[in-house]
Amino acid sequence: MDFLGQPRRMVNFKLIFLPFLLAFISLISGYTFIRWLVDIKLHLISIDEMVWDLFIPGGLAICTTLLLTRKRLQVFRIKGSAPSSLTKLLMTIALAVPMVIAQSLVSSASYDLIELPNEDDIPAYKHEKFFSLEQYRVRPSLFASDASFRVRGKHNEDLNIHLYIAVPMDQKKNIWYGIRYTKTINNHLEENEKEVLFSAFLEEVDQKFRNHDFYSQSHFELLKKSDLYDGLKMAIDNKYPFKADQELYLLYPRTESLKESNHDLIVFFGIFSLIAFAVVGAISLRAQVDDKSYQDYLHGELTDNSFTSVAVNMLSFRAGCPATSLLINVCIAVYITGVFIGVDAISANVQELVHFGAVRRDLVLSGDYWRLMTSAFVHLGVAHIIMNTFVLGYAGKAVESTTGTVSFLFLVIVTALSSSLASIYWHEHTVSVGISGVNYGLVGALLTLMMTGYLDKNKKSDMIILLSFIAVSSAISFFTPNIDHAGHVGGFIAGVILGLVMTLWLSKPIPQNTNPISEV
User: Fold this and answer.
1) How far apart are CA 208 and CA 213, in angstroms?
2) CA dihedral 450, 456, 457, 462 (to 10 degrees)
3) CA dist 320 to 154, 325, 396, Å?
4) CB atoms within 10 A of CB 504
5) What angle do CA 318, 319, 321 make, to 5 degrees?
6) Per-residue pLDDT tens for 17-72?
7) Which of 2, 378, 393, 466 maximizes the CB count within 10 A of its CB?
8) What are the angstrom distances between the C-alpha of 355 and each of 317, 359, 439?
9) What share of the chain is helix, strand, coil (3-state, %, to 5)?
10) d(Cα 183, Cα 158) in Å, to the nearest integer?
11) Judging by DSSP bridges, how do beta strands 76-77 and 158-170 pair with one another?
């Protein structure tokens, strides 16, 4: 059947499959070329390889999918309903997975295998990546080690332990052989139980290290900026601090040849690209055109109230709350900057957070007073920042539109400081980060403004939903480890007090059904 002069399947192809195909080709080819030029060929930027390989491709895939589907998917119905978030998720994965594999492929296939008689000439090939050594020397008795701990899992149930061991091959030239051992234990155990398991892990590693065959592999990867590189470098810096300013060469043994690795990546890229096209093709075939929505789309009259559009308006300062938009952008910019310089994107450890501006009692008392404010803009990981910026956008817009931008910024500064001060007063050694203390302050101010009649009635239903969400989240958080309840309470109390103070100069909203002109 024709639709406005076009076969219906052609509409599906033009609005779903074709945009995805063009995005797939342009994103993968364009980003891969930029990465090859900037990182591999010209060595202009030194950032964590995971950022190149995973973080940027994933971010580009998410943003591209959301922008492509923002209005186009509203034209269609699947089983009588508008396409769900699952549809967008499938399209995002279909775009992201081949992009990630393409980055692994370009970072492997762009290098040749350098064959050397020994490790002496490694510094002359510092921009290469893969080496084959006929002979080399290691000195296990001079090893350096360091342990790293990261919390993982939906409910912070996993504690991942990484033990990094660097063995010198040539100390004068700062060339090292790298080893990493890992173990995951239950993060919900008591501290003494964790210590017992950690001690058992150390004994196990000690035995493995004593029996380690350093000469079983002849192929090595010269590590670039990565978690593995950072862990081994930290081990060396701790034991040999005088080496910190020297250029470091870390060789990590490979179990698979470069040729085999490249072949496998090409096969994986082809397979997952075909799967991606099949998934989006299936979505395109299942979708049914809604006549009215398609006409509205063609005439530019399609109403777009999706979360994507709301988020875009907020980030681009078009949501009518400039200070809230600024705060969200600052949080995101700080998070992205941290990831680019090596802070773990999923769950940063204590050292990374402290280096980037976290607050802790001893640091503040030693003179780092600036941490009382900067800690609000530092976040533990991607889930932490998504949740906090979501609440900040919702509550911030409501407060700023009621109090005005100047009063809102004053509220943010005071609640951030109050949250940090409450945290370091209550906790002696705990590191605290995140803008959740400010969020609780905004909620406290909203609650006060609502109860005193200074909040517009049109906003009250939305605020009740927000307050209910915060109440449920707070109740759950009391049973979740690693939550700074003191900071939340400090921010909330400050918000309630400032909300009361603001009523001294704020004007109550005029009811919409009230006529300000009365007859005499």
Assistant:
1) 10
2) -70
3) 34, 9, 11
4) 6
5) 110
6) 999 999 999 999 999 999 999 999 998 887 888 889 988 999 899 889 988 887 88
7) 378
8) 30, 10, 24
9) 60, 10, 25
10) 10
11) unpaired
